[in-house]
Amino acid sequence: MPRNPFLAFGALLLAAFLGAAAFALLQPMLPGSDRAKTEAIVRDYVLAHPEILPEAMQKLQEREVGKAVAANRSGIETPFAGAFAGNPQGDVTLVAYMDYACGYCRASLPAIDKLLAADPKVRIVYRELPILSPGSRTAAEWALAAAQQGKFRPFHTALYSESRLDAAAIQRAATKAGLDVAQARTAAASAPVQQEIARNMQQAGQLGVTGTPTWVVGDQMLSGAIGFEGLTAAVAKARAAGSASRDAAGA
After folding, report:
1. Which of 17, 96, 136, 241 is the most buried (most CB within 10 A)?
2. How far apart are CA 209 and CA 221, in angstroms?
3. Residue 67's CB: how many other CB atoms inside 10 A?
4. Interior angle at CA 215, CA 142 and CA 13, nearest 5
5. pLDDT (0 to 100) of residue 75
6. In whole angstroms, what is the distance from residue 87 CA to residue 89 CA?
7. Which residues share a beta bridge with 165?
8. CB–CB of 143/100 below 8 Å?
9. Nearest CA to 197 among 240, 157, 143, 242?
10. What's the predicted TM-score (pTM) here?
């Protein structure tokens, strides 16, 4: 690997153009002078077209995220108790990492509802990622307790409709959702709920999640309030990739 940072970038881009495996096989076969010429050509091209660097790095990041998702897919896509919506047997699973203190998460609720109404084959899996405030953690615990009672969505919707996130708001949401409050209070402090939050935090770290909402669908990870169109496009891309994989497997 070249030690000069420009040559390192050049090698990265050449790997992107030719394929990492092809470049790894090609490099030892080149005489030293030819290898130096190749690196110089790539370096000059990069310096003349620096705009390709962000694109190359984005492609590399997408590839690495795809690997991380594939390695942890079962844990990412398997809901905790009833913390999901849509078709339980859906052909595409959209995973939403959310925090009840997150305004962008609240703003995304209409887009999720619209997607569920428009696509009968999609499943939404909600993953609690309480990273914004101490109240986020308590809210996440109660949401998972609601999921154990089969009332995740009513609680989820009721709590996001509150103007602030505090103990009183959580209790009002629990009442609106029809929870057995005493049972939910015990469940919120239970080992399964605490372990679920810990797993979500670990998964988020492995995926490089930096905020909420974050969406995982297929091999893609997207960040922010991307709206109905963004969610629809991501689901369509994942569905197409899944169909292509099934066709290839059956060929």
Report:
1. 96
2. 9
3. 11
4. 145
5. 93
6. 5
7. none
8. yes
9. 143
10. 0.77
